[in-house]
Amino acid sequence: MSMILTARALQIKTGNPLRKLVLVKLADNANDQGESWPSVPYIAEQCEISERSVQNHINALVKMGLVRVESRKSANGLNQSNIYHLCLDVTAVSGESPAPCGANPAGVSGANGSRTGAADAPGGANGSGSGAGAAPGISHDPVIDPDNKNINPVRGKAKSKTVMPENFAPTPEHIEQAKAAGLDIQDEFQKFSDYHASKGTQYVCWNSGFRYWLNTAAGFKRSADSKNIDTTECDEVFRKMFSSSDWKPENRVQELVAKHKSYIGRMNEIAGRAAFRGYWKQATEQAAKEREAA
């Protein structure tokens, strides 16, 4: 997670509150190089919007020059989650067009984008702070109370980034995390290692990097599992539910679906079966989340 990029994303105007939320989520998941690779289903789940809406907002952010998308495919040709390169610039705060990705905008210096251009001269008709009608400037700098004796301005030296250590391996925490999500820890670790070796990635904490990788993989798997509904079991439960008066649910998915029995029972068979499949999909997703949380 990059605090600098998240802070910049919060300052940028995108023209749409949901688009701003997607941008902030990308920044929240980015590393210090501005690379972020959460899956679309994961972003949709976190932002509580549809996957199509996420894709539309990302496309809009690309057109605005705030994001560059790098498509990825696995060795067997299957699509993987894209890599989003964030090109955040605080010039967008004032409504200006953001600089192209990788460019340093004129008049901006430092991590917080403080402007040092000529337009900020303290004198003149528009910038004078001494005129009778001059509006006071708004400062976004943090306030430091000089009387607070607990403030310690001296900070320890920041840890340096390194490439993946040769002896780096999954921790027991990683193993439990993968097990709870139904992931193969060795397979995910191999993909993680190969990807970052090819990119020459450097992290301050590789344990955190792999933890984030597993979170993303779990979200992608959950979305894929929800699309692979067992239609045979679904149709069989639908038949038993409405043909047998003594039918009882046999698992958590069936318990969740049974809550909608009376509503579905008022429909004709075609509409009822279609509605039942929708509830079955929702129940499958909820049961999967409950298993992960357990």
Fold and architecture overview:
Residues 124-134 have a biased composition (Gly residues). There is one protein chain. The protein is mostly helical and 294 residues long. It folds into 3 domains: 3-102, Winged helix-like DNA-binding domain superfamily/Winged helix DNA-binding domain (Arc Repressor Mutant, subunit A, Orthogonal Bundle), CATH 1.10.10; 172-227, no CATH class; 231-293, no CATH class. The protein is built from 11 helices and 5 strands. It has a 3-stranded antiparallel β-sheet. A two-stranded antiparallel ribbon has the order 4-5. Helix 1 (3-11) runs antiparallel to helix 2 (17-28), helix 3 crosses helix 4 and helix 9 (252-258) crosses helix 11 (269-293).
